[in-house]
Specification:
Blueprint lengths: L1 E4 L9 E4 L8 E2 L15 H11 L8 E4 L6 H10 L2 E4 L18 E4 L5 E7 L7 E7 H30 L7 H14 L7 E8 L2 E9 L9 E6 L6 H22 L9
Parallel strand pairs: 1-4, 4-5
Antiparallel strand pairs: 1-2, 2-3, 5-11, 6-7, 7-8, 8-11, 9-10
Helix pairs in contact: 3-4
Amino acid sequence: MFFLLRGLSHGEPLFSISTKNSITSGFVKYSRIYEGNIRNSKTLKKTIEDLRGEENNKVGKQVIVMDARIATEDNLALLREEGYDYVCVPLSKPDTKLPAREEEELSTFPDQRGNQIQARWVNFPGEEDNFLYLESEMKEKKEKSIQELHCLRYEAGLQAIKEGIEKKGGIKRVEKVYERLGRLKEKYPSVHRLYEVKLKSEGGIVKEISWQKVKERSRKPGAYFIRTTLRDEDEHTVWDIYNTIREVEASFRTLKTDLRVRPIY
């Protein structure tokens, strides 16, 4: 039995999926809506209590599947204390260098659209959970496309600031220019770190702004981790378990759009 936890506040329901022959078959058993003024990461304890109230006749092994917003360290510790296994994407990977890959450790399998997924188990010192490292062709292409778009928009924002500095009556005071830069960084948090921006000022007035793109020092596009307490499942099975949450997301979209039976956005 797999419980899928996603967006437990802001009108997003909790779905429980009961399975028979595979992890992706089954049906929605019940849902529940929580108050919308509570952060998702703060609703887990109440949700666990509600799960126990609903699931009096427990069948088989129970696994909690969560998105990253709920998978805080405190919540994962709570699940371990309560005796639940879980599968999630971690908020951040362990602050440890990724171990070198051994070819025999690599598992390759297709996703639902036939795109190749490469996966291998990674052991991090001091971590009691298992980490599955994945690289996805489709995810890499999507992330690169999104990053390129955001870079274009970020540079357009920088150009607008530059034009304001150069034109008569434009925004030139140092503090105001920094405010504009700050708002631009907030708007594009994933790409502003890729740029080095320099200001030249005189007497509190910005005379010139310049920027250049620097070499990115982040993770490989399309790469991510799945964190789990499961120990006896293979890479493909764990990946499949996590992706059942996509079925719930698809259900939310259908309920809110095509069927219009849950108009909570």
